[in-house]
Amino acid sequence: MKRKEVDSGPEGDSLRILIVEDEKIHRELLRKTLEEEGYRVWSVPSAEKALPVLSQEEIDVAILDVRLPGMSGLELLERIKEKSPETEVLIITAFGEIEDAISAIKAGAFHYLVKPYEPEVLLNLVRRCGELVSLRRPREPGPLVYRSQVMKDLLRQAEIFARPEAPILILGESGVGKELLARYIHEKSGRKGRFVAVNCAALPEQLFEAELFGYERGAFTGAETSRSGLIEEAQGGTLFLDEIGEMPLVLQSKLLRFLQEGEFRRLGSNKILKSDARIIAATNEDLKAAVSRQKFREDLYFRLNVLVLKIPPLRERKEDIAELVAYFLRKFNQKYQKDVKITPEAMEELLRYSFPGNVRELENLIHRAVLVSGREITPEVLGLETKGESKIDLHLPLGKALPKVLADVEKLLLKEALEQTGYVQTRAAELLGIDEKSLRYKRKKYGI
Questions:
Q1: Which keywords does this Swiss-Prot/TrEMBL entry list (predicted)?
Q2: CATH for 316-381 (3.90.550.10, 3.40.50.150, 1.10.8.60, 3.30.390.50)
């Protein structure tokens, strides 16, 4: 079976996963399941054989059985967290070993699985680990590419907002380039510190406070050393909080205090620390509506809603499409040492398309097209469904036409939900009112 390519961090850099499982059949099944998703996998039957792999490879996620011959899974977990605290650990346990699983969580494991379990449950947990790993990996920013007057006006306003120390709120649909605009503001601000970005939707609630504010040694089981948080790392620079609407309410009050006083406490400490990190927040949600639903604090909303920038969707600035296509063609031709060009007919298709996923969707389209094309990108290579997103064959009997129409509508809704949520499956499933297993099945069914 051909392996799918999964991007769990920087381009082309898939998650590195270690399986430690003494049952050969289970170990091979795990390995096959993960490799079919495009992950790089090492599998060993014991903790003793895992140690050399851990010392030689940068493992992102370790999947450990609790009961292992020789050193136990819990002992190996402690070794991993001692030498590589950034490695996320999933524990596999039998029904009667729940106490071991709870002990593992307290010792720093991300989560646990109870045998027997559905493969979808495992893959969902691995993806969540991957989201955490991607937060810690440095990302290479791209430039802001535009031609439209509306973007010129927006960047002019952004330069004006760059100098004050007040927080900035960036609004816009998923994929429009909110982080790129935040980086642009940081560069124009004259701040010498780092630009630190975090996606609030990707952080599990139980880890959010520790990641944002840091923690002291002994703050919780597994906290063997003190660690600075993102606010400290952004000292003298900018902290970009993407999807601010997903921040847990309990942490919103602590963020508000930081915005008002410039003060915070690490988890497990009473000592007040200061930071002059500038906050830039972004969202594709209606925060005012979130306030009405009591999902977002009103006082934090008013604090953020002062310097506001709204990035228009790509469908409202079609003049930018040709510039973006040229940029992405140069980028991917250089990456793959190719010289692919786009035909006028394919460019016309792009100009007619509505781009629900905005610039990110256009980038993915060109990336794929460069990979699969010989010398030129044609409309057939793009495979877009423009003007209505689907065509109904009126020559089909009604009994056959209706299922096709319903399938087209379902596919369109799936794509829009995934784009709106930045392909975070938990949120997309919630938006659609289905469970994650159903969402995964439908994505496979429609090839999304």
A1: ATP-binding, DNA-binding, Nucleotide-binding, Phosphoprotein, Transcription, Transcription regulation, Two-component regulatory system
A2: 1.10.8.60
Dihedral angle over CA of 360, 365, 370, 371, nearest 10:
100
Residue pLDDT tens, the chain, 448 long: 333 333 333 333 578 999 999 999 999 999 999 988 888 899 999 999 999 999 888 899 999 998 899 999 999 999 998 888 888 999 998 766 667 777 787 778 888 888 888 888 888 889 888 877 766 655 555 678 999 999 999 999 999 999 888 999 999 998 899 999 999 999 999 898 999 998 888 777 767 888 899 888 877 766 677 888 899 999 999 999 999 999 999 899 999 999 999 999 998 888 999 999 999 999 999 999 999 999 999 999 999 999 999 999 999 999 999 999 999 999 999 988 999 999 999 999 999 999 988 998 999 899 888 988 888 999 998 988 654 444 444 444 444 445 555 666 677 778 777 777 767 777 777 777 777 777 777 777 776 7
Q: Can you spell out the DSSP letters for 139-161?
A: --PPPP----HHHHHHHHHHHHH
The span from the CA of 173 to the CA of 196, in Å, is 21
**Alpha carbon of residue 411 to chain centroid:** 22
How many Å is the Cα radius of gyration of the chain? Answer: 24
CATH superfamily of 398-446: Homeodomain-like (1.10.10.60)
Q: Please tell me the pTM assigned to this model.
A: 0.62
Where in the chain are the domains? 16-136, 149-312, 316-381, 398-446
Candidates 29, 31, 32, 39; CA nearest to 4 is: 39
DSSP string, 336-356: HT---EE-HHHHHHHHH---T
